[in-house]
Every structure is written in structure tokens, then in C-alpha cells.
Automatic annotation (TrEMBL):
Component of the 9-1-1 cell-cycle checkpoint response complex that plays a major role in DNA repair. The 9-1-1 complex is recruited to DNA lesion upon damage by the RAD17-replication factor C (RFC) clamp loader complex. Acts then as a sliding clamp platform on DNA for several proteins involved in long-patch base excision repair (LP-BER). InterPro entries: DNA_clamp_sf (IPR046938), HUS1 (IPR016580), HUS1/Mec3 (IPR007150). GO terms for biological process: double-strand break repair via homologous recombination; meiotic DNA integrity checkpoint signaling; mitotic DNA replication checkpoint signaling; mitotic intra-S DNA damage checkpoint signaling; nucleotide-excision repair; response to radiation; telomere maintenance. One of its GO terms (cellular component) is checkpoint clamp complex. Transmembrane segments: none annotated. Keywords: Cytoplasm, DNA damage, Nucleus. It is found in: Cytoplasm, Cytosol; Nucleus. Belongs to the HUS1 family. Component of the toroidal 9-1-1 (RAD9-RAD1-HUS1) complex, composed of RAD9A, RAD1 and HUS1. The 9-1-1 complex associates with LIG1, POLB, FEN1, RAD17, HDAC1, RPA1 and RPA2. The 9-1-1 complex associates with the RAD17-RFC complex. HUS1 interacts with POLB, HDAC1, FEN1, PCNA and RAD9B. HUS1 does not interact with RAD17. Interacts with DNAJC7. It holds the Pfam family Hus1. This is Checkpoint protein.
Amino acid sequence: MKFRGKIIDIACLNHFTRVITTISKLTKTCVLRLTPDNLFFILSEKVANGGVSMWCELSQANFFDEYQMEGVTPEDNEICLEVAPENLSRALKTVQNAKALKLKLTKKHCPCLTLAADLPTLSAVSRAVTHDVPVDVIPRKLWHEFKEPHMPDFDVSIYLPPLKTIKNVVDRMKNLSNFLVLEANMSGEMNLKIETDLVSVTTHFKDLGNPPWDDGSQRDAEAMAQARLDIRRLQQFLTGQQVNPSKALCNLVHHRLLHLILLHEDVSLQYFIPTVA
């Protein structure tokens, strides 16, 4: 079982750092799944039990100048590691101006992802920084828990307004209630609502557009599907987001689930937030 990769392009390194930082804001631990073509960061809490889930997919060719891996066996050519993304994020932030960054799976006092960077210097003496980020190797028998989640059988799918705009609204609403209702329809309309004994507040969005999924259903385009959410879950997602997606959308399973999708040319991030009663 081997893994090594090298990033030379500083723009790729900074983009990789932003993705890891986003993930670190969403979860304390996650699974890093390495395959010959992709890296996946996976959080697999049981949504049915009130937990959130995450699936972030990166194409290695868009980040790494060199990338080599050997999985557990030729038939099971992948590696699954449990990692604390905050540790990885801190290490990456110290090497953002590196001339090159090498990542390698190593065995020190425990399995580690070792980051080695050549930093720029004003003298002829090179300056190198190394970080060892501890990881746990996940055995093959548990891999089935970390497969790509199925697209939910949603009632409404809609493009989101600018995430910064949503964040500003949610930040204000959090001061008034612990819960928020997000509702949307297939006519490009979305509302964010809070209702308490003392106050009722709604923010309306129109003309957002709906993704062209062709699922063969004949839904009423004006009918609202809604999800009542713990506002802290949504705020956590919006606060940590640094991927700068080219498209952002959400799918709603009425009274059950909010499925958020951020799409970048070389990154996709899915985040699942269950509803609360």
C-alpha cells in the first residue's frame, strides 16, 4: 500500500488548501479515499439518525503534477484513511508559498500523511518544512460504508442564490431562532423562513432557475417542498465554504432532507442535512 503525490503549481496548491479548509469547517474527522484517478473526502453519519453526510470529489489530475498509488491489492486498488482535516488544513497553510509540495503515506510512530515542502528563501540555503499528519488505515471490510451516496428521490431541485447572500440572511435569522425552514418549488422560487411565538420572518428569492433533471415526474411547478433545519447546521456549511463554486444547487426531499451540491470545474461537494421535527 503506497501513495505519493507532488503539487508544483502554486494556484493548484492554494485551491487544494481552500478545499481542505472547507472540509475542516464541516467535520472534525472524515475518510480520505484514494483511487488512481480521484481523491474523496467522505463523512458518513447516518442521516436517518439525525447526522449529516458529506461527499467531496477531486480529480487528482487537476491538482497533482505527480501522483502514484498502489492499493491494498491490484483488484482493490484504493486506500481508505481516517484523517482530521483540521490537522491537514493547518499543515497546508504553513506551506502556501512553497515551490513544491510532496504528500506521502508514511509509517512513523503511526501511519501518517507526510507533507514536505520546499519554501522560497532569500539565501542560497534551501528551506524545507515537513509535517506528519497522523491517519488511521481503514480495513477493507469497512469500505462498503464509504461509497458514493445515491441521489435522493427529491421533490424539488433549484439553483441557489449567491452563497454569501444566503449566509448573511442565515446569520441574522440565527439571532431570532434555532430553526429555519427552507422551501422551494420548480418555478425558481425559494424562501427562508423562521417562525416563533414572537416573530415571523421570511426572505424571498425568485427567478433562480431549476436544474434540467428529467425524472419523468409531473410535479406541480408551484408546489413548495420544505425542510425544517437546525440553523447551526446550515450556518456551519455556509461559513466554511471556500470552494467558490461555479454552480450551487440544492435538492429537497419534503420534510426529510436538504441535499446541497457545490460544483467547481475540478471539485464537487455534496452535503446532506436531515430535517428536524
